[in-house]
Amino acid sequence: MCRVYKNIILLLLIYTSTFQDLFSQDPTSLIIVSNSNSKVIVDGEKIGEVQKGKPEKFTITSGEHYLQVICLCPSGYEKNEILSLEPNTQKVIKIEFESAQSSNLSEKVVAQFDFSIPGIMTSDGSDQPTVYYAFERGDEVVLNLSMSNDKGTNQLQVFTYPEQKIIFTKDNFQDLKNTRFNVGSRGIYGISFSTNHAFDRNVSLKISRIPASEETIEFNCEVELEDVYTPYVIQQPQNFYLNGGSKATFGDGKSRTYLPINLPEGTVKWYYEFTAERSDVENDNTKNMLTLASDLSRLVDQTGALSFGIDQLSQPPGSDYCDIYLIDHSNLNPFLTKQPFTYYTVASRENFKSGIMEVDFQPNEQIYLGIKNPSTFYGINVGIEVVAIVKSQELVMINN
Predict the structure, then answer these.
(1) Mean pLDDT of all residues belonging to the chain
(2) Selection from 318, 350, 293, 345 nearest residue 239 by Cα
(3) Engineering a disulfide at 326: which of 118, 119, 228, 347 sits with its beta carbon 3.0 to 4.6 angstroms away?
């Protein structure tokens, strides 16, 4: 009998769980009205059709969805939108298709060229051809594509740059005839292509735009690469105590330490800021005054490049001396064990109370900042911060 009760309880738990799963997403109403007979696709699946001028109501789950409304006409015009639907609400979408011939503003060709789409036998998927263009808010972008043969099908994605947010997709096509998508905001957009065929596909592509108004007819769709400089924090401000040399040898603590310097790819130069104080209270206060990262960010933002001097950086205070050496891995252990060692003089400082070092030197090996208390008897508190400037390239719009 006990086993029967356990089975009943188990069935109730399964039923309750299933019931909760079924209703975990509250439904919402989507009403679509179009000026043309159209089919409605949500998240890649057709959910029905609408007749010209007649509102049609659909029930779907709440959340974010990708809506495609495709005109049931020879042109196959398409409108698309990303929906964010709240539970137990109703959203009305009005779709208006307008051909280029009937528009007051004609199509303007953005680009027209031939290229190759790598096949799955010759590509690992990382080399999908992608083109980038700028579009104005309200633009209707028109794509026409033809293949040199009829084998295999293609896919395309349109996404925002640099956010990589997909706004339009098209799957399993051989040709594109007046395929359209709308631009919700001014910016740069990428269009990438792939194929399911084993070998490369040769295609011809034409990209056009229909401006939303006469004021945007002359919008420049070209983009270019621009150098961008970004501060990258290697070591946030920190402080530590170093004993005097004799006390470290015959007592507790240590008089030397080190900090690994791992420069990120694209580093064009790097900086370190340091200060030394005998009082730990003063050093704590001084550490809060290490503003290397914020200073570099401000200057890079102001100049857009590296056209500033080290004298424009806030110099930290300091009242006691320390030595800082830039060393490689082979000299790290000799430095720590007080054996003879070599170091890079261009980025090292001896008997300095505080300062900022600008380093253009970038060895092709692991490097360290070796930090030493030069005093025999007195301990010091050291504060340090390390920041690199990284260069990258980003696409920008031209003269808009």
Answers:
(1) 84
(2) 318
(3) 347
